[in-house]
Amino acid sequence: MSLIERLAPQEVGFPLPWARPARNKVRMSDALLLSMKVNGEEVEVAAPAHFTLLEVLRYKLDLIGSKQGCDKGDCGACTVQLDGVARLSCLTLAVQANGREVRTVEGMTGAHLHPLQDCMDKSVAAQCGFCTPGILMAAEAFLTKMGRVVTRGEVAEAMASNLCRCTGYTKIVDAIVDASAIMAEGKN
Amino acid sequence: MLRLPVFGSKSPTSIEELVMAIAEPGARIVAGGTDLLPNLKHKLHAPTTLVSLDRVAELQRITWDREAGLLRIGAGVTLTQLAEDAEVSKNFSSLSKAAGLVASPLIRNMATIGGNVNLDTRCRYVNQSEFWRSAIGGCLKSEGDVCHVVPKGRSCVAAMSSDCVPVLISLGAHLVQVGPEGRREVAMADYYHSDGIAHTHCQPGEFTAEICVPIAKTPARAAYGKWTVRKSIDFPLISVAMHFALDRDAADATITEARICLGVLAARPKLLKVDALVGLRLNDPTTAELVGELCFKQGKPLDNVPYEAEYRRKMLRVFASRALRDLLA
To answer: Cα separation of A155 and B190, whole Å?
Structure first.
């Protein structure tokens, strides 16, 4: 049991999704058994039909890297990849990810930093860090799709879904352009 | 944190299963979910079942039906697919541009053309959280019984804010609707009502399967102009789509047929009366002036989306002439 699951709702002070079954009238028997591949690992998880992919990732699978920001598709903090395509997990129903491959920022943990992570670090492109998981997921999908060195203008257009209130974007764009050079070089 | 209301879900894999699934009471279609899910999180609808289109492969194709002279776009085609399709962009640059201007890249990765055509109407007083709406007692489209846009108004004037709809109307497109009674075709110009609450002629148990755009037989040029607060993420404040059939493919060609459609005025996109343009030369300065004048005279925005109606009306002229300029390039 994770730390957040052990917290009783009254200690948190705001409604936790698992503390509201009575009000939502959800019975466990209504839950659907979903199977998906999350960061390369086959996962089976039970969740009601009205859960978003983000809620399943964060509250059922404990993958709290993807952030819950605006929760209505404006901020991009919840960006994940579904079958290699970047999308907003707060507006994706968990059942839509059933049988598919999900990649979250947790999938970027390995012995070595991903070129994007390395460049984000070197350019100091993360300040508070709340938008960073979403930026990494959106940027990785974008660079994989382009497969070449990208321009600042292309980055600005491709990353228009992801809001950052700290950096002013300049350093994020620097990092993505640098990473595109490293990733394109690695391919050749 | 915004919670979705409780509902069940179905994921049909064929058109037949889909027809059966949405025939059930309380069923509603979800395609990309980028418009429906925020509305559900704001408690604007309460469906009992959401029927997802994402596994119906038949709806996810773009086909060129040369025999019928139509481009057939499946309702489940995402806006990214549509905007990045090289053939579509070559033949229907205005449609490709409009699809590529919708919201933000991630939303376009999810949102579908079928959803964009059936996009719910929007209003600054209704697309708000339940808590926000409770402060003004709701409105005709939500919990209340008054209109905050038109005082004493008895019908909803929420705006059709889709980018692709005015363009598709200007291109003379039609929809293929599939329901329990089979298939029927409906011209997009006749598909929309002026009632912001039930703004389409979509019958109960019916869904849009295909969007068909006629391939122009004569030389033609089309353009789309959209004004937004920011460069990305936003719905249009006003939108202008225009299509001109020409006697030859050149900037100084003579207009043989013109269609101009304005969006974001009210629930129904407005197809303008533009007979005066026929016979004029495309690059004639008086043509540009007349196009701006026609848009300004016939387009009457309301205070249903951000920015003042009067200001938006003046900008119709600006964006119409900018769209026309794109078309001469």
So the answer is: 40
- pTM for this entry: 0.92
Secondary structure (3-state) at B132: helix
Produce one character per residue of B55-83: b if its CB has 16 or more CB atoms within 10 Å, e if not.
bbeebbebeeeeeeebbbbbbbbbbbbbb
Residue A181 and residue A131 share a domain: yes
* Residue A8 shares a structural domain with residue A100: yes
Contact list in A for residue B9 (CB cut-off 8 A) is 32, 49-50, 93, 95
What residue in B sits closest to A135 (Cα-Cα)?
B106
Q: Which of B1, B6, B233 has the CB atom closest to A26's CB atom?
A: B6
Domain B57-119+159-214, CATH among 3.40.50.300, 1.20.140.150, 3.30.930.10, 3.30.465.10 = 3.30.465.10
Q: What is the pLDDT of residues A113-139, one digit of tens each?
A: 999 999 999 999 999 999 999 999 999
Contact state of B109 with A85 under an 8 Å Cβ cutoff: yes
Q: Which of B6, B33, B106 sits opposite A138 (nearest CB)?
A: B106
CA distance A50 to chain B (A): 6
For chain B of 329 residues, list the mean pLDDT of each consecutive stretch of 10. 92 96 95 96 94 96 96 97 97 96 96 97 95 94 94 94 97 97 96 95 95 95 95 94 95 95 96 96 93 96 95 96 89
Query: In Å, how far from its chain's centre is CA A28?
Result: 26
Quick one: pLDDT at residue B316? Answer: 96
Nearest to B301 by CA among B291, B316, B290, B288: B316
Pull the structure tokens for residue A152: 């600042």
CB contact under 8 A, B33 and A93: yes
- Look up tokens 């789309």; give the residue: B224
Give the minimum alpha-carbon distance from A47 to chain B in angstroms, rounded to a whole number.
11
CA distance B189 to B167: 11
ipTM for the predicted complex comes to 0.94
